[in-house]
Amino acid sequence: MNTAxxxxxxxxxxxxxxxxxxxxxxxxxxxxxxxxxxxAKKGEPEWLLEFRLKAYRHWLTMAEPAWANVHYTQPDFQKxxxxxxxxxxxxxxxxxxxxxxxxxRTFEKLGVPMNEQAALAGVAVDVVFDSVSVxxxxxxxxxxxxxxxxxxxxxxxxxPELVKQYLGSVVPTADNFYAALNxxxxxxxxxxxxxxxxxxxxxxxxxxxxxxxxxxxxxxTLIVAEAGASVSYLEGCTAPxxxxxxxxxxxxxxxxxxxxxxKYSTVQNWxxxxxxxxxxxxxxxxxxxxxxxxxSKISWTQVETGSAIxxxxxSCILLGENSIGEFYSVALTNxxxxxxxxxxxxxxxxxxxxxxxxxxxxAGGSSNSYRGLVRVLPKAxxxxxxxxxxxxxxxxxxxxxxxxxxxxxNRSAKVEHEATTSKIGEExxxxxxxxxxPMEDAISMIINGFCKDVFxxxxxxxxxxxxKLLSLKLEGSVG
Amino acid sequence: xxxxxxGVGDCILASDLLAEPRPDHxxxxxxxxxxxxxxxxxxxxxxxxxxxxxxxxxKATTFHPGTAAAVDIKERILPEARGTRLVFVNGHLDPHHxxxxxxxxxxxxxxxxxxxxxxxxxxxxxxxxxxDFFAKLNTARFQDGVFIFIPKNLKVATPLHxxxxxxxxxxxxxxxxxxxxxxxxxxxxxxxxEYAGTGTYLTNTVVEIFLAExxxxxxxxxxxxxxxxxxxxNLRAQVQRGARYHSRTISxxxxxxxxxxxxxxxxxxxxxxxxxxxxxxxxQVADTHSVLDHTQPHCTSHQLHKAIVDDGGRAIxxxxxxxxxxxxxxxxxxxxxxxxxxxxARVDTKPQLEIDTDDVKCAHGAAVGALDxxxxxxxxxxxxxxxxxxxxxxxxxxxDLLAHIPVxxxxxxxxxxxxxxxxxxxxxxxxxxxx
Lengths: 479, 435
Known about the structure:
The structure holds 2 protein chains of 2 kinds.
Chain A (H helix, E strand, L loop, with lengths): L22 E3 L6 H10 L4 H15 L23 E3 L14 H10 L6 H5 L1 E7 L2 E5 L2 H6 L3 E4 H7 L1 H7 L10 H9 L2 E7 L8 E7 L9 E7 L4 E9 L6 E4 L2 E6 L4 E8 L11 E12 L5 E8 L4 E4 L2 E4 L5 E10 L4 E4 L2 E4 L5 E11 L3 E10 L7 E11 L4 E10 L5 E10 L2 H9 L4 H17 L4 H15 L5
Parallel strand pairs in A: 3-7, 6-8, 7-9, 8-11, 9-12, 10-13, 11-13, 12-14, 13-15, 13-16, 14-17, 15-18, 16-19, 17-20, 18-21, 19-21, 20-22, 21-23, 22-24
Antiparallel strand pairs in A: 1-2, 3-4, 5-6
Helix pairs in contact in A: 1-2, 2-8, 6-7, 10-11
Chain B lengths: L4 E2 H5 L4 H4 L4 H15 L17 H5 L1 E4 L19 E5 L2 E2 L14 E4 H7 L3 H4 L7 H9 L3 E6 L9 E8 L4 E4 L2 E6 L4 E11 L2 E11 L4 E9 L5 E10 L4 E8 L4 E10 L5 E10 L4 E10 L5 E10 L4 E10 L7 E10 L5 E10 L5 E9 L3 H9 L4 H17 L5 H14 L3 H6 L5
Helix pairs in contact in B: 3-7, 8-9, 9-10
């Protein structure tokens, strides 16, 4: 890219502040004792401690995966703080008034609606700060229709039978290195249960924030939609700016029974490190949905703009007949960011369908890889997949890679994959400018056009945020 | 070379080969490869590059080095290449069937044993190869092979035909030919590389191609090994500025076959075509692992790989395209198209793009599916019965890759072979497709 398409300094990370709150942390390091401490601290039942220890023991035998196209120094797992909670007098806040005002201000800065204004936004929010859920709104209203939406710890206390039934049923403890680590040390997260036949009346939302400098965030999300139920769930993430790398290793499990549908949307904006690649979050996340019932549907939509390293493959196991899996993704990398992300669609049941739309944008000296698997097993009669993976390169130092794995074992399956690569050309920009549209707006419009297929899958307020976020992230990389 | 080789994994320890006298310039290379193999076992599905391959049958087979045998090559003769043909039987040159009387002046078409006397720099032409197990095995153990040299600006009109026959009568045999092709600046030639045979054997071949500026090589590769055979081929090509390398690999044979072509584009304006067609039935497995490496600006590459899989066959495609930093103006296209004809047929395909520069045109696509019911219906509505319609569509799927083979006799041969495979001989003949 020539000089006309360079310069202009980069936008600072807007969410990079640290909140000064006393936190209750365990010393850094990982051992069975730490796990017992976390479990005791949270007053967990014996079976959950066993679950954790089993995962930990297996984790000790596993090696960190090295196949992804990302390069980083392996985190020192003994230097991570595995439990860090905002200090509190009582185990649970009775109302928002009791929450540390400093904490509330943090969320105001982030634009998370937690007070009565939330009524206007019409979104129920669960907020996870470092490792612990601090506030959940609209619980009562949701409870009226039988929906459970609470922090994971609370679910363990209040609904142990549900948690026990579904925890680890989609992502087993030994699934992979980071899932095993999460299973051993997860501290909190969100739990959603939509009972039979209920369509959740509002979007549910969780906001994740890492605040403590040395802490890792290991949250666990479990969403169960019973027969005929439906829910749309949003997840947002930010972290303060530190010059060290922090680890985020989450596990998300979704279970959809007959005719149920779950829509899971993420806008991930963890701190990405500075323009030379110092600091930033290592985002190593396992997300998987099980379409267990007939006609069930799971849809993943993600906008990945943050994190120094992203290693994330939201997947669908299409077990139930006629079940549908969808994956819509925009992954943007800039400066020294590295992303290796994609999806897996495992077609097991008859007439299962999946759609993959992935848009990768790489700017600066970043590297952006799509890695996906479409597997059609012998019994998946009539399976259908369509994948489209487009890459846009901005600048001569960026990389875009596509690694689609397609494994078909059923003749009646129809699987199609397409990928293209393009760039924002000087000519395109010139055209916009001669029409009086400023450079930044022009870029934003081109990017929005490129990502349109994904953005339109996002809930309204997320779509607006995502659009803003992309133009913010790209400022300075072109023009 | 009398010792029985127990599996390929063990054959690397056959010390009699080390004692065999070899030309000096090969020695270092061979020793290096030999040493590598001492510490290496056969690849397993745990190696990402061998993820879909099962080499247990290969490992369980005992291979003996083959000896000269009488073969019938009547059906393999191409009239266009009557006087430009080298025939190898079980890895050894067969002077009786070979004929180089029609070679133009300056062209060298020699078996390696003879060439190593005539061309002292031969050893330095050979790349130390990469860490591919079978490429190393060939380097360490090849017995003979071919050296082709086309001098500056010579455009050779007659195609060169290399025919490798294997005949395994009692016990499995192994042959490991090495082929070195050098085209000087502006030279052009057409090369046909063909493998066939009977019985259980392993062909482990390595082809090295050097194309100087503006040289042009059209390379037709035909693999019709016996249904019990193993065929492993490594190809490395270096393509300089303005040169053209157009290749097409047609695989019918072998119980297990693997093609590993790797083409490095080293100069501006080069053009590469790397097409392939695999027709599989029974329990055949065909794997193609290709690499196209764009290191220079303004080069083009096109790859169309097709597989037709019937019965319990399995087709694997793994195509990597690299566009290195600075290779702006690259135009790279890759397509993997797969047709499944039976319940148990299986396809694993992975087209990959790795792009490190922004000003490029790159696209790839993959499709796996059965015959289109609408197309079947259309043909049926024109009076074809179900089976005939299926056969014709299957033939049509393959035929477009054969249409542009320049050597008429080879084109006809391959078309007939595809028709026979798709049971569409009569029908296609009726439709005048035989031309």
